[in-house]
Each structure stands twice: as structure tokens, then as C-alpha cells.
Design a protein that fits this description.
globular, 147 residues, alpha+beta, 6-stranded antiparallel sheet, 3 helices, 22% strand, 6 strands
Length: 147
């Protein structure tokens, strides 16, 4: 029993460190949010996490970005959040981007406080967060400057 508890605690510490490393990286790049279009980016893995719905039932959601707000990192759920790269380009004169990065100010203005809002979550296992972290760095490789 004791070894199971130590394993669980070390997993929690590793997850906290991974999240903090992502927060620090986003801060160093002056990124408040990053949004990607899962239909056009060439990720090696589809970022998905298991979350509990309002009734406590588990469901799997696809992650379409990260939002750093008040030093907390939120996963942006595809469809449920209402956040999309479609909101950040003019289809009449621009090519649709695969990835959009927002400065902290712009992200706060556009996305607001995600605490308790549908479509934003901090849930997920260490394995799921590692896939999201991989997708974050792949998205950065798309080389779009912050808006």
C-alpha cells in the first residue's frame, strides 16, 4: 500500500512539473494561448484526455490548444470551448492557419476566465499531458508569430 501511495505521489509531482515547464515555456515566448486546427496540423498523436462530465461520467475530449491564465494551464476542448483558429483570420483575404498563438493580453481579452467554464479543463493523466506537450512543441514548429 505504501509503495502505491509513493508511486501516485511521484506521478502527481511529475505531472505538476510538466505543467509548470509548459507554463514557463509559454511565458518565455510571451504566449497566453495556442490554438491548433486538428484537421490540418500534422501531429504524431491526437491529443485527447479523459474528463468527468457534470454527472461524473468519464468522456474523452480532443484538445485543440492550451490557455495559460493566472499561472494555471488549461486544455482547450475541441467544439465545447467555442475556440477555433477560424476566429483569427480573414477567410476572404488570408489562408487558414493551422496554428494561432495569442499574447497573454489578447488571450485574456478573447477567452476570459476559464475557471468553471465549459470547454476548458485541467484534468488528464500524465500520459495524456505528455501527448499534449508534444503537440504544443509540434504546433510551435508551425512557426506562426504571436498575434
Amino acid at each position: 500500500m505504501e509503495s502505491t501511495q509513493k508511486y501516485s505521489e511521484s506521478g502527481t509531482q511529475l505531472l505538476d512539473k510538466a505543467r509548470q515547464d509548459l507554463i514557463n515555456d509559454m511565458k518565455s515566448r510571451e504566449i497566453g494561448a495556442i490554438v491548433w486546427d486538428l484537421s490540418s496540423v500534422g501531429f504524431h498523436y491526437i491529443p485527447e484526455v479523459r474528463v468527468a462530465d457534470k454527472d461524473g461520467k468519464e468522456r474523452v475530449v480532443r484538445v485543440t490548444g492550451l490557455y495559460r491564465y493566472d499561472d494555471v494551464l488549461y486544455l482547450i476542448e475541441e467544439d465545447a470551448s467555442g475556440v477555433s483558429v477560424d476566429d483569427y483570420y480573414n477567410p476572404d483575404s488570408e489562408v487558414k492557419p493551422s496554428v494561432v498563438t495569442l499574447t497573454e493580453d489578447m488571450a485574456a481579452k478573447d477567452l476570459g476566465d476559464p475557471q468553471g467554464r465549459e470547454g476548458f479543463t485541467t484534468e488528464g493523466s500524465i500520459e495524456e499531458w505528455l501527448v499534449v506537450a508534444d503537440c504544443y512543441f509540434e504546433a510551435l514548429a508551425e512557426d506562426n508569430p504571436p498575434m
